[in-house]
Amino acid sequence: MIDxxxxxxxxxVELLLQAPILVCILIAGADDKIDRxxxxxxxxxxxxxxxxxxxxxxxxxxxxxEDFEDKLKFMINRFPATAKERNPQIVSExxxxxxxxxxxxxxxxxxxxxxxxxxxxxxxxxxGGILGYMSIGYEESKFIDLKMINDPSKS
Length: 155
Description:
The protein is an all-alpha fold.
C-alpha cells in the first residue's frame, strides 16, 4: 500500500485509485462519445505513468495501472451513457477528492493533482485537431482544468 494512504478510510483510498479513470471518462466522454482513440490514449497514459510519473507517484500509478483497461471499461459501464447524465456524477465523485487530498501529505497531494491535470490534457488531445492530435474540443475544454478539484498548492 502507498504510505500516504495509511490513515485513510477504505472508500477514500478507493476513490484516490479511481481518480485517473474518472478523469479519463470525464474528458473522453465530455462530447457525449468515448471514442477508440481516447480509450487507447487512456491506456497508454496509464502505462506511461507507471514508468515516467513523478517519483513519488510511481507506486500509485503501478497500482492504478494494474488491469487499467478492464477497470476503465467497467467504470464506463457503471455510469450513464450520455454526457448530460454522466458528467455531473463524475464531477461529484471528483469533488470528493478535495477532502481526501487535505488529509494526505501536501507534497503528494500537489503532485497527484498536477498529474491528474496532465492525464486530462493528454486524453483531451487524443481526439481532436489534425489527424486527431493536439487539439482540444469545446466540451473537453470545460473540464480539462479539473476545476472541481481544489489545487492543493493553493491551500
